[in-house]
Write a structure and sequence with these properties.
Layout: H1 2-5, H2 14-64, E1 72-77, E2 80-91, E3 102-113, E4 116-127
Antiparallel strand pairs: 1-2, 2-3, 3-4
């Protein structure tokens, strides 16, 4: 008599399938988020590398011109689209240098990444001539 009421169920119930799909969705969403963040980090670090290369190039050009030139404001950088730079030279007073006249030149490279302004500064301290 007991055998008449015994039923065999094969497969999955709808609730089990929904739970499995939910767990799979959460895992895939976290993987996608990690990949997306990684791509953003790599892209922004590429911009920082380009900015550092441009700043060093501009500073070397300034030094090769005997540290002479006018201050620049938002000047475009040749070969680097959407990158701009400022070059500001000021007198640098520090008791370590004593009576020497010392100047400080700061080159700031600016760009926007996803509408967020970024900048990188490179400074050079030298004796005025």
């Amino acid at each position: 008599m007991n055998l008449l009421y015994k039923k065999f169920f094969y497969g999955f119930a709808l609730v089990e399938v929904l739970i499995a799909v939910t767990i799979l969705s959460l895992v895939l969403l976290s993987v996608y988020s990690g990949i997306s963040s990684g791509i953003n980090i790599v892209s922004n670090s590429r911009n920082y590398t380009m900015a550092m290369t441009a700043a060093r190039s501009l500073m070397n050009e300034f030094r090769s011109n005997n540290m002479r030139g006018v201050d620049m404001k938002d000047a475009p950088i040749e070969g680097y689209p959407n990158f701009y730079y400022d070059r500001i030279t000021t007198r640098f007073d520090n008791p370590i240098f004593g009576p020497l006249i010392v100047n400080k030149t700061v080159i700031t490279v600016k760009w926007k990444y996803k509408s967020i302004p970024n900048s990188l500064s490179l400074s050079y301290i030298y004796q005025a001539r």
